[in-house]
UniProtKB/TrEMBL annotation:
The keyword Coiled coil does not apply. GO terms for molecular function: chemorepellent activity; integrin binding; semaphorin receptor binding. GO terms for biological process: axon guidance; integrin-mediated signaling pathway; neural crest cell migration; positive regulation of cell migration; regulation of inflammatory response; semaphorin-plexin signaling pathway. Belongs to the semaphorin family. Residues 25-460 form the Sema domain. This is Semaphorin-7A isoform X1. Residues 1-22 form the signal peptide. GO terms for cellular component: external side of plasma membrane. It comes from Aythya fuligula. SMART domains: PSI (SM00423), Sema (SM00630).
Length: 633
């Protein structure tokens, strides 16, 4: 309990507040979970400076690319192995000197057909290998698939047999970044004039009803050509391309995409008009109808706040199909810019010329109707977003967002009928390492969270965390968990559980007698004139905690100091301090006893087994508590 409280105290330094959009309960603080149960860890044999991670859906294994090495670990069987990928032929760095230069950093690990594609910098000579059942192919030229040196602005999308990439193909500096098709139907790249200093975020392909309409969408930031003082310096964008684009008809345009268009993404808080213009990460949520497929965009602003805005691909497509081109007032050609042509055909050169000189559409992409505003925003600087759809008992689906903070923790945020609620903060790593990667396994409901030294497998359903009674289980409002058979258990293990996710009152769902608590007091001997403190663990920040002494209320803790346990401190124990102490939590009218202690005078109650009044750990806690109170003042 000691270390738990310590971590809780430390975590208190980052106050967790979600700007909950809708009305309803104004509950603001999540439960904080450290080293959650059921997690499994794989530590690399050595730390990696630029690790890359690959996990295939519905498996229990993870691949990690490091410096000259590929690690494999299966969490279910604990099988691990390592494969070496050394620099071939000494590399080709023009001015070796930087220690980064003479190494082969693996930058891409991906499934490609039946094999795995593994690519690395190869000491300025990008190289790829095809790995099939642990058999390495001979090295191949990897230019365009791996950068010359580790580079944060590289994006590779594998949509077998096609591969798209934003990686430079030449070592010379000063090249304008391009979005390319590097494998599959013929090489194509974006015109150098259509993006201004782009920073790529993510890309996806999307199947439409007819294959010639299939699209590629990519998300990026770029410099704002509007340099006025009040204009934001960066704009967040979505770009579209047709998958079957065959390039232009002239020799100059033969290798250029002819279906490129870009639009701005809007994420503005209507209440404050606060603009979240820096796209940090996106997550794609497919749907059976492509128009309903969604993209969850995570944005930050200059003040370090974050917002999540959700867009539908139907809306994005409408903007590209119907909007005017910015700055173009001429007549529209028969084939409109951005329109996909029938299979095997080329975009007419007239259409391409207009699009190439006016690549931006005037309309902007707004978040989903009806609100057209952020799902929520708050004061955290989130780094990554993941979205999981959870099916619950009544066949309904709930959306759970996983947001990686810049402090090594993950917030679990649930979309509930009355608005979003941050129900949990998970401290993933025992040491506070930055989160480099967060991969969701939707089928197995697992998170794979990677740092420079390890990968942790975290179950999304952690129902054992909730105090094992019906009320606590339902009050948690965790879509993964419900109450059945006297246990708080995962919905996927028992679809017959009771849950409390809608706005109906929950009280009727718990039967009397399901709360099984022994109401015995723990006897604790305390010497007179010593100091003593009583500690009640704060498990839910939505509850109020009360300390009673001989049935009289002596202390109340509520949201004032959220992440701190509820202490009651006795400066100098005198005879009136002895007796029964009870700590009770109250949430939504549900009360439960959490701590029962009976302080007895050692002089009268001679026992060798009595607990020491104060241990070193508890003093440390107290000191921190005092420190924290000072800090908060
Ligand atoms: C996931 O794997 C399990 C066991 O290997 C299999 O039974 C199940 O059908 C798989 N699910 C999907 C969606 O492939
Ligand atoms: C790698 O090997 C697999 C299986 O032989 C094949 O399907 C795939 O196309 C290969 N990939 C590359 C890039 O050569
Ligand atoms: C505490 O002491 C009282 C009185 O001696 C006794 O009845 C009770 O069982 C003790 N409680 C525990 C948990 O040992
Ligand atoms: C505690 O109280 C007793 C009696 O009231 C007093 O003699 C003693 O000095 C006090 N101890 C401390 C540490 O304040
Ligand atoms: C918190 O406690 C204070 C005093 O202890 C009380 O006045 C206030 O109403 C409480 N707030 C809530 C939300 O329970
Ligand atoms: C509480 O009860 C204990 C024992 O029953 C007694 O010694 C103590 O004086 C009481 N204290 C108060 C404040 O009622
Ligand atoms: C507010 C913000 O993030 N500004 C960035 C805009 O882009 C330039 C370069 O692309 C960055 O240097 C700024 O920090």
């Amino acid at each position: 309990m000691g270390s738990r409280s310590l971590v809780a105290l430390l975590a208190a330094l980052c106050a967790c507040r979600l700007g909950v959009r809708a009305a309803g309960r104004s509950k603001v603080n999540p439960r904080i979970i450290t080293a959650p149960q059921g997690t499994r860890e794989y530590a690399f044999p050595r730390s990696e400076k630029y690790p890359v991670f690959y996990h295939e859906e519905n498996t229990s294994a993870i691949y990690v690319g490091g410096e000259g090495r590929l690690y494999y670990h299966d969490f279910a069987t604990s099988e691990s192995y390592m494969e070496d990928f050394p620099v071939e032929n000494g590399g080709q760095c023009l001015k070796p000197g930087s220690p980064e230069d003479n190494k082969n950093f693996i930058t891409l690990v991906a499934k490609h057909g039946d094999g795995m594609l593994v690519c690395g910098t190869g000491a300025c000579a990008p190289t790829c290998w095809n790995l099939t059942q642990r058999q390495k192919s001979s090295p191949q030229d990897g230019r365009g698939l791996a950068p010359f040196t580790p580079d944060a602005n590289s994006l590779v999308v594998v949509d077998y047999p096609d591969i798209y990439s934003t990686i430079k193909k030449s070592q010379q500096n000063g090249k304008i970044p391009r979005f390319r098709r590097v494998r599959g139907g013929g090489e194509l790249y974006t015109s150098d004039t259509v993006m201004q200093n782009p920073q790529f975020v993510k890309a996806t392909t999307l199947k439409h009803e007819e294959s010639h309409q299939d699209k590629i969408y990519y998300f990026f930031r770029e410099d704002n050509p509007d340099k006025s003082l009040e204009a934001p310096r960066n704009i967040s964008r979505v770009a579209q391309l047709c998958k079957e684009d065959k390039g232009g008809t002239s020799s100059l345009s033969a290798s250029k995409w002819t279906t490129f268009l870009k639009a701005s993404l809007i994420c503005v808080d209507p209440a404050t008009k606060g603009n979240f213009n820096w796209l940090q990460d996106v997550f794609f949520v497919p749907a059976s109808n492509w128009r309903d497929s969604k993209v969850y965009g995570l944005f930050t602003n200059t003040w370090g706040s974050s917002a999540v805005c959700v867009y539908s691909f139907g809306d994005i497509d409408d903007v590209f199909r119907t909007s005017k081109l910015k700055g173009y007032n001429g007549p529209n050609p028969e084939i409109k810019p951005g329109q996909c042509v029938s299979s095997g055909q080329h975009t007419p050169s007239e259409t391409f010329k207009i699009a190439d000189s006016h690549p931006e559409v005037e309309d902007r992409v707004e978040p989903l109707a009806p609100s057209r505003s952020p799902l929520f925003h708050n004061k955290h600087r989130y780094q990554k977003i993941g979205v999981h759809k959870v099916s619950v008992r009544d066949g309904q689906q709930y959306t759970v967002l996983y947001l990686a903070t810049d402090k090594g923790s993950i917030h679990k945020v649930v979309e509930l009928p009355e608005g979003v609620q941050n129900i949990m903060e998970i401290q993933v790593f025992s040491r506070k390492e930055p989160i480099q990667s967060m991969i969701l396994d939707h089928e197995r409901a697992m998170l794979y969270v990677g740092s420079a030294s390890r990968v942790v497998e975290v179950p999304m359903a952690m129902c054992g965390l909730y105090r094992n009674n019906c009320e606590s289980c339902l009050l948690a409002r965790d879509p993964y968990c419900g109450w059945a058979g006297g246990r708080c258990q995962a919905v996927h293990q028992n679809p017959e559980v009771h849950q409390n996710l809608d706005l109906n009152p929950w009280q009727g769902k718990c039967q009397k007698g399901e709360v099984m608590e022994a109401d015995t007091y723990q006897n604790i001997t305390v010497v007179p004139f010593s100091r003593y403190y009583l500690n009640c663990p704060v498990e839910s920040h939505y509850a109020t905690y009360n300390w009673y002494h001989n049935n009289s209320l002596i202390k109340t803790c509520n949201n004032t100091h959220p992440q701190m346990d509820c202490f009651y401190f006795i400066q100098n124990v005198s005879h009136t301090h002895y007796g029964h102490y009870l700590c009770e939590s109250e949430e939504d009218g549900f009360k439960q006893a959490l701590v029962r202690e009976r302080l007895v005078n050692q002089l009268r109650f001679m026992s060798q087994k009595g607990r020491a009044t104060t241990t070193l750990g508890s003093w440390l806690q107290l000191l921190l508590a005092a420190l924290l109170v000072e800090l908060l003042h």
